[in-house]
Amino acid sequence: MTRHRALVVAALVTGLVACATNPVTGDRELALVSESQEIQIGRQVAEGAAQQLGLVEDDALQAYVQRLGLKLAQTSERPELPWRFSVADDPTPNAFAAPGGFIFITRGMLALLRNEAELVSVLGHEIGHVTARHSVAMMSRAQLAQLGLGIGSIISPTVAQFGDLAAGGLQLLFLRYGRDAERQADELGYRYALAHGYDVREMTNVFVALQQSARLAGQSPVPSWLSTHPYPEERIRRIAQALTDLPPAVEPRRIGEADYLARIDGLAYGEDPRKGYFEANRFLHPELAFRLDFPRDWRTQNFAQAVVAGSPREDALIQLMLVPGTLQEATERFFGQEGLTAGRIRSQRVNGLPAISGAFQAQTAQAVLGGVATFVSLEGRTYRILGYSPAAQFRGYEATFRAVGSSFARLTDASALARQPQRLAIIRVPRAMTVAEFNRLHPSAIPIEELALINQQPGAEAVMPAGFLAKQVVGE
User: Positive or negative CA dihedral for 49, 69, 163, 10?
Assistant: First the structure.
């Protein structure tokens, strides 16, 4: 196809199938993804995110967030979407939206907020990204950029044609929207919260708290809200300007502090060791009662479905995960994959546990990989420890891959098995006192500056008034 003809076809495609009306602005805009495709892609991405991040196991809390979010969404510009609001089991303050109305907020964000009005402003912002079709616009631009690769991939009505987008998983959740999209989402969140009688003056507290939390943020499989939602100072100024035009309320606007804090009383805070934790390079899992040693100096991360470690040179990866089937079934399924060539496979005992391991080569779309897969059986579960690198680097990593697989062992240390997560406790302050004094009376298991942060106080010497509902963090 000549360049001129390709441009003509592209123009025809854009003119015939790529225009849609934005539900928020009413403007015509590029939209190569239909609403049904948007929903299907979003559902796939949301299911993958829920599996990878995990959801907080608190039905009452999940129902509370769903009820608040749905109340806003059903009076938005797109009430017909299958809206779903979920609390992700992640300690980092964050919130994000998959296409089609699938919204996530982390328990780390809930721990940072102080009231229902703040929560609603965060949910409203994410709803705004969906109602204004920001992710659809970005997906459409990505598809349009691939015109030179074939018009068929753009005009096909099936979700299968968007497989690469859906396979992006979490990446699709963390699209970095431009300034205009963020401004619009802020404005929509403000509007939705105000329409339901919430005190939108609380919205600025969220941005201030997130600013202060940036330096205290811990590692997480997802980036912080400030990372994906930039320019906090500008956003604070714009909300402050909007508040100058806020009309007087006939009745007091809702803040909902006591109700909100009662909902998060007892919520896990920080990393949950019951789902696995690291001590130096050793990973311990109290619930499943096993341990595994990763290489020193490798970057590690504990996901809901897998534990991964990356080499310092970023040319090798080790992954630990549960796999279905017996030891023999899992081994045969892995080494029998098309495109994979197995080396010698041998049965062995790993720290007294039955195991099978073997080297392999696998052809991928990008490169030939070399690796070692070790399968271990413990308490009726089958674990796979998979180490791989480009084939050219494999010999340099083979001994490391085998050593990690051989370190898998039953966890027997009583203190490790008994580890529990830190939790929030809500305490009413009987009299005016500083954060530091409160911490002396009710010691928290976190640094004083972090305690001030989660109570939205500027520092340790800030005075909390009598009757203030303060957060304490209890546990190891």
Answer: negative
